[in-house]
Design a protein that fits this description.
About 30% of the residues lie in helices and about 35% in strands. It has about 180 residues and is of the alpha+beta class. It has one domain (about 5-180): Aminopeptidase. Helix 1 crosses helix 3. The longest helix is centred in the middle third of the chain and has 16 residues, at about 105-120. The protein is globular. This is GNAT family N-acetyltransferase. It comes from Hymenobacter taeanensis. Keywords: Transferase. GO terms for molecular function: acyltransferase activity, transferring groups other than amino-acyl groups.
Length: about 180
């Protein structure tokens, strides 16, 4: 099943995506902007990660595809709590030349539509490192997410500690947003 946004196609990650994913997995400029801890990885590690994707029912990981460009990044809904209808969302755009063109916004809107309209989730959450102003702005200013808390001195990057911005959106917030911005109209 493919999930269609206005400009992006959200699809399953395929084995032919692994060279690009491996390249991005070893790009410190990308990973310094994301939550979690990352180590240099070889291609075999990337392949094992891919092979294990289908074994986890609480994680959905997707490729972000753009017609004419192909694979531009990944999105996910992980740590899914099916009983309480919630999950943790993340997005990663690979190469610099695809950023700032609306693909991230369309991806987040598409993932929210999938989560709230297809999976009937009640909420989505994410974490954003405090210096990732582009992500904070797109989630909170354009996509209707709310800063719900701050974990102080949570991430160690660039030889110091940074705060973790806890950001979330509810089903109600999403439907209010799409009613106001008419995104899917």
């Amino acid at each position: 099943m493919n999930i269609f946004g206005k400009h992006v196609l959200i699809r399953a990650i395929e084995e032919h995506d692994l060279p690009a994913l491996h390249k991005w997995a070893n790009d410190p400029d990308i990973w310094n902007m994301l939550a979690g801890w990352h180590f240099p990885s070889n291609f075999e590690y990337q392949k094992k990660w891919f092979d294990n994707l289908m074994n986890n029912q609480s994680s959905q990981r997707f490729a972000i595809d753009v017609p004419g460009l192909g694979l531009i990044g990944t999105a996910n809904i992980v740590d899914i709590d099916w009983k309480n209808r919630r999950g943790y969302h993340g997005i990663m755009l690979g190469d610099n030349d695809v950023r700032g063109k609306g693909y991230g916004f369309d991806t987040i809107m598409t993932i929210m539509r999938y989560a709230f309209e297809e999976l009937y989730f009640e909420r989505l959450d994410t974490d954003i490192i405090e210096y990732n102003k582009a992500s904070i702005n797109i989630y909170t200013q354009k996509c209707g997410w709310k800063i719900e808390g701050v974990r102080r001195r949570w991430y160690f990057r660039r030889n110091r500690f940074w705060d973790n911005m806890l950001v979330g959106i509810t089903r109600e917030d999403y439907f209010t947003l799409v009613e106001q911005n008419k995104y899917w109209a």
